[in-house]
Amino acid sequence: MNKPPKIKTKDKILLTAIKQYNKVGVQGVTSRHIAGEMGISHGNLDYHYKTKEDIILAIYDKMRDEMSEYFVAKKEETSPIERVHLLLIQLEEFQYRYRFMNLDVLEITRAYPKISALLQKTSEYRKLQMDSIFQEFSNEDYMMKIEPEIFDQVQHIIRIIITFWLSQREVLANEKFTEKGSMVKSIWAVISPYLTEKGKKEQAETIAKYGYTQLNLNDEE
């Protein structure tokens, strides 16, 4: 039986850093904490990543690559609404996998200008991708024609929900909408008023097929 490929030290550092950052936050973890958790010397870690910013940048590159796969992935014979629903399920799961990035986003952008610039650039790129998605909705008569200003506001609200979803769960812990799948539901609540009857029918069939969470998606597969 073939052995699984050995994980490189550089990749192990990132995996350990993600685990530690998720557990106690970026500010509570130093490179020495990460090295100690791995059982390697600080010099060994420093050889691969000189600073905490270098580690977070590498994690962000990893995140961005995974996120891009979600945006471009298209299952054959699926409608735009089905593809968006699957994307939202993946994005919510992604939030929990790298939750420190969303929970500590203000601290990270203030402390690390390079990462702040990358976040801005990625946000602009995601907006273009979302424009394309909604254009598909419109072309296939799933979405009503709406004024550009309203269209921009809807998109902005969706990006706010995605960016700050985990933060609001921490701050509003006693409120509703804390279970997994709630982010997907909330985004659809923003989009639904602008769907045509055809769009609402497709949305209902898609939700009935996949549910709102990664667990249900795995069951479907």
Explain this structure to me?
- The model has no long low-confidence stretch (mean pLDDT 88).
- The protein has 2 domains: 1-50, Arc Repressor Mutant, subunit A (Orthogonal Bundle); 60-220, Tetracycline Repressor, domain 2 (Orthogonal Bundle), CATH 1.10.357.10.
- The protein has helices spanning 9-24, 31-38, 42-48, 52-72, 80-97, 99-103, 105-111, 113-139, 148-171, 182-191, 197-210, 214-220.
- The chain is mostly helical.
- The two termini are 26 Å apart.
Task: List strands and helices in order, with pairings.
Layout: H1 9-24, H2 31-38, H3 42-48, H4 52-72, H5 80-97, H6 99-103, H7 105-111, H8 113-139, H9 148-171, H10 182-191, H11 197-210, H12 214-220
Helix pairs in contact: 1-2, 1-4, 2-3, 4-8, 5-11, 7-8, 9-10
GO molecular function, one term: DNA binding
Protein name: TetR family transcriptional regulator
Pfam families: TetR, TetR_N
